[in-house]
Amino acid sequence: MQRALISLVALLVSGGLLWLALTLGAVGYETRTAGLTEGRLRGLLEKQPRIDVVTRAFEGEGTPLLGSARGAEELGRLARLAGGDAARVAAAGARFPEARAFQAGDLVYFVFFDAQGVMVGYAWARAP
Fold first, then answer.
1. Pairing outcome for strands 98-104 and 119-126
2. Which pTM was predicted?
């Protein structure tokens, strides 16, 4: 009886530690991904590239164009690529006349441009 109790406690402790390790790993991965993505897009924004430069650069590195939008209605449709974050993405790009979406692994980058085709903002979300 005592051996069964010790085995059960050991199993519960091991399971708890496994859960903790997996949870910490997932949080660390999400934090790292968010930091790298924000840094990458913020650095790109600081350079104020034109729409053609952004598109060629992303496609050249294997980040293909998923779609583009002009105006709020088209942006609403394009923002659906963000799944549950669609409303946040649409709100982020609402004041800009043009947007493009790019597939970056399991993320979707939304890059916003002014009337002259210069990058003026961005948003990103996990692909659904």
1. unpaired
2. 0.81
